[in-house]
Amino acid sequence: EDVPSQTFDNKDYFCGKETFPVYESVFTEEGETIRKIAIEFEKPPQIEIHVWTIRKGILRHLYVEKLSKREFEGLPYFKLITRTTLSQWKIFSEGEAQISQMCESRVCRTELEDLVKVLYLEKSEKGHC
């Protein structure tokens, strides 16, 4: 199920909090789904990519790689899905660590989907910052 992408550069949209672009790449090869979630940091300028290997709904392998922006720009398949804050990224990373242990032996499709949804920010109503 696709969650519509958000493209907001306006800091007012998120109460002045700094946001970072989040990208996703999903492809299937040899019966495995490889799902990559990447965040682009300004300082230091690098991309952090979380790579999930899923077979029959079970998270088989999880690792994190860091690339320069130039290396990342050369990669195919990534699309911008949202912008997120550092605090939401921290929640995502901590949740990912818990899920990786929990899902080594059982199907976790919904848990993985819910974890990605953490990165999507809710638009704040004016005056509620």
Automatic annotation (TrEMBL):
Keywords annotated in UniProt: Developmental protein, Glycoprotein, Repeat, Secreted, Signal
Signal peptide residues on this chain, from the entry's feature table: none
Record-level Gene Ontology MF annotations: BMP binding
Domain Chordin-like protein 1/2 C-terminal: 10-129
GO cellular component: extracellular space
GO biological process: cell differentiation; negative regulation of BMP signaling pathway
Record localization: Secreted
Major site of localization recorded for this protein: secreted
Domain of life: Eukaryota
A Pfam family assignment: CHRDL_1_2_C
Stated name of the protein: CRDL1 protein
Lineage of origin: Eukaryota, Metazoa, Chordata, Craniata, Vertebrata
